[in-house]
Amino acid sequence: MSRFLEVEGMTAGYGAVTVLRNISLYVDHGENVGLFGPNGHGKTTLLRTLSGLMRAAMGKVRFDGQDISRARPWEIVGLGMVQAQQGNTLFGEMEIAETLELAAFNRRAREKAAANLDRIYTLFPRLAERKRQKAKTLSGGERQMLSIGAALMCAPRLLLLDEPTLGLSPRLKEELAEALRAISQDVPLVVVEQDVELLLALSNRLYLIEHGEVQREIGKDNAPDHQEIMDMYFGEHA
Questions:
Q1: Neighbouring C-beta atoms of residue 77, cutoff 10 Å
Q2: Which CATH number belongs to the domain containing residue 210 in this structure?
Q3: Is residue 85 part of a domain?
Q4: With pLDDT > 70 as the criterion, what percentage of the chain qualifies?
Q5: Residue pLDDT, tens place only, 45-99
Q6: Do the bridges between strand 58-63 and strand 205-210 make them parallel or antiparallel, or are there none, so unpaired?
Q7: Which of 27, 111, 210, 237 is most buried as measured by Cβ atoms within 10 A of its Cβ?
Q8: How many of the other CB atoms lie within 10 Å of CB of 190?
Q9: Is the residue at 137 inside a domain?
């Protein structure tokens, strides 16, 4: 059986600036994978390239056995790999309900729209309470919930998350973390996250990304202790 997601020798960047250097990693079926490492070392670029928002200069990306290296973003979403954008990218003048309804734009998502909408309102009751409220009036945590909800309306088979709890209060962070744990029971995740405790709780395996390269793969059988993880995150590993 092929890997669910496989990245082979990916090199990517912005113009003449190379950010990712020959990255290879994988996600197996039903597996949650965490990405961590110092800020500015390529994690967000990796997600953007997987989503088709950036084009890799070299390398291959396969999703469920299909080569998507040159696929366009909406084609990748249609196949079921969906990135939840950070909450500050929402259309501010759109209501919560409008945003969620619009997100189910492809045929596979439309077929599951009613069930997915019910699921989102159960996961995020704040959104159900404020469904006629405009996105620009929401708090940072509520916007993040809406962004994840919009991604779920796309009926993802694999959900990519870029620092979903960044900047949230402890109370909202725990509320969102609880929802992510529930989501991960049904939809595999690839998560970039600063909260190491949350990342460890969500993930089957971790990849340390530093200087645009995979420096280390961490599984259950070779998991370091919390302090070692923190040292790696801040670039202090040996």
A1: 23
A2: 3.40.50.300
A3: no
A4: 92
A5: 999 999 999 999 999 999 999 999 999 999 999 999 999 987 677 888 999 999 9
A6: unpaired
A7: 27
A8: 24
A9: no
Pair 10, 56: CB distance under 8 Å: yes
Average pLDDT, the chain: 91
Q: 3-state DSSP helix/strand/coil percent for the chain, to nearest 5?
A: 40, 25, 35
- Overall domain count for the chain: 1
Beta strands 17-27 and 5-14 are: antiparallel
Q: Tell me the percentage of the chain whose pLDDT exceeds 90.
A: 74
85 closest CA partner among 172, 148, 16, 177:
148
Q: Are 190 and 161 in contact (CB under 8 A)?
A: yes
Could you tell me the CA-to-CA distances from 150 to 37, 64, 75 in Å, in that order?
A: 27, 23, 17
Closest CA to 19 of 44, 38, 36: 44
**Interval 151-167: pLDDT, tens:** 999 999 999 999 999 88
The reply to whether 173 falls in a domain is no
Determine the Cα–Cα distance for residues 43 and 179; give it in Å rounded to an integer.
23
pLDDT at 214: 95
pLDDT, tens only, 125-155: 999 999 999 999 999 889 999 999 999 999 9
Evaluate whether residue 117 is within a structural domain.
Answer: no
- H-helix or E-strand containing 9? strand 5-14
Residue 40 lies in domain: 1-80+190-238
Q: Which long-range contacts (CB under 8 A, 24 or more apart) does 166-171 make?
A: 166/86, 166/194, 167/140, 168/140, 168/141, 168/144, 169/141
